[in-house]
Amino acid sequence: MVAVLTADLINSTSYEKTFLKEVVNVLKTEFDSISKEQDALFTIFRGDSLQGVVKHPEDALHIALRLKAAVLKVQDPNQKKSNMPVADVRIAIGIGEADYNVKAISESNGEAFHYSGHTLDAMKAENKKLSLKTGNENINSEFKVSLKFLDSLTDKWSIASAEVVYYLLKGMKEQQIADLLKRSQAAINLRKKAAGWEEVQLLLHRFNQVFSK
C-alpha cells in the first residue's frame, strides 16, 4: 500500500515565465528535501504537473500540505505590494496498491495511480484543491468533508501565513521561525493562529491515525 500524489499548478498559463520557473524550482527543492527525509519519490512532467509516490500513506497529507504551503509562500516580484498568494496547486492523493518504476514514476501503474490521476481530473469541475481517493468509501466520505474544510482554510492564507505553516510542517518551533524570518515570536504566533494551525494539526493527526492502522 502506497500513496500517490498527482498535482498541477492552478492557472499556471497566467504566470509570468520567470515566476513559473521560480515556483517549479521551489517544488524541485521540496522534492529533494522530502525524498531525503522520507521514503518518497517525485517527478515533474508537462512543465506544471507533478507526481510522487509516498511509501508511508499516513504521511501523504502532511507532505501534500507542505508542498502546497511551499507554493503559496512564493512571492511574485511583480506583485510585491500584495500579501496574497499568486501561485496555488491542486493535489489529488490516491492510496492503494501500486507497481512503480523509481526511474519513471509517471509511467507507473496500479490502483493508487488510477485513484490519484482520475481524482485530479475531476477536481477542477468540483472546485476542489485537495482531495483523497481510496478503496474504502467510508474513508473517502470522511475526508471529502474534512478536506473541503481544509480548502476553505488554505484559500484564506496570506503569503505570510503560508510561510509560517510551511516551517511548522518542517518541524520548526515558533522561536526558530521568528529568528529565521526576523520577526517577534508574538508575530509568528499571530500568523499561526490566523492560518488555523491548531485545526490543521487535528486533521493531520486524524489522517495519520486512519492510515497507520
Structure description:
With 213 residues, the chain is of the alpha+beta class. It has a single domain (2-157), classed as Alpha-Beta Plaits. The protein is built from eight helices and five strands; from the N terminus they run E-H-E-E-H-E-H-E-H-H-H-H-H. The protein has helices at 17-37, 60-72, 111-126, 137-154, 159-169, 174-181, 185-194, 197-211; strands spanning 2-9, 40-45, 49-54, 89-96, 130-133. It has a five-stranded mixed beta sheet, sandwiched between helices. Strand 2 and strand 3 (49-54) form a beta hairpin. Helix 1 packs antiparallel against helix 2 (60-72) and helix 5 (159-169) crosses helix 7. The longest helix has 21 residues, at 17-37. The termini are close together. 38% of the residues are buried. The model has no long low-confidence stretch (mean pLDDT 94).
